[in-house]
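Fill-in record for LacI family transcriptional regulator.
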Amino acid sequence: MTTVTLAQVAERAGVSTATVSMVLRNRGADLASHP
């Protein structure tokens, strides 16, 4: 049970991190195009 939970948490954390990085990149592009 613990292993499965940790795996799920790790997957969620990875997805959230990827989403945040994508959002930051998109915002960076917007700021660059609209200084």
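KEY FINDING: The chain has one domain: 1-34.
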